Each structure stands twice: as C-alpha cells, then as structure tokens.
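Hi P.,

Sorry for the delay on this. The queue was packed all week, but I finally got your sequence through. Input first:
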Amino acid sequence: MADDTVQQIYAKVTQRIQDDQKQLAQIDVQISTNQREVRLAALTKREVDGLDSQAPLYKSMGKMFVQESKADILADIEKTAKSSETMLQALEKKKKFVNRDLEEATGNLKDLVRSSQAAAAQK
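Then the structure:
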C-alpha cells in the first residue's frame, strides 16, 4: 500500500476509536444518571409508603407545589422508576454495541500497524 493510503486509513481508524471512546464516556454518564434516578425513586417510594394515607402530600411543579393523593404520587414514582430502568436497559445494549465497535476498530488498527511494519521490513 502507498504511504498516503495507509495514513488515510490510520486517520479514519483512530478517529473512529476516539469517537467510540467519547460515546462510551457519554453512555457511562447517562447510565449513572439513570441509576441515581432509580435509587432516588426507590427511596422516595419507601418514604411515601411509610406515611399515613391521610397525610397531605405535595408534588413540585415548576416553582409551585400542588397537593396530590398518595396513590397519584406513588404512581408517578413508579412511572419514573420504570422509565429509568427501561432507559438503563437500552443504554447497556448501546454500551455493548459501542464496546464491540471499539474492539473491532482497535483490532483493525493493530492489523494496519502490523501490515505496515511487515511491508517496511520487506523493503
């Protein structure tokens, strides 16, 4: 292969590796955020479950608080938890895919280096 062709391929592969690493970092941040939301929902649910059904409960809406029933608040907490868990599952799948892509790109880079070293040794 010509040197400029090898350099172009090298640049593309290293760019792909960098993009995959950035994606993995973003996915990890999203995973930790969703895990925190799930933990927060579980804690809130446990606290609300411990309250009397007649106790006044309030939900934050923008800059104000609105009184809601215990059942409505628990339903909202469940919805939030399910949404976060669904997002976590999707993010885990995406992370596996990006990891596989990163491993493939790294393997391609190693193969490219080996082949260029072998070509240089033969000259």
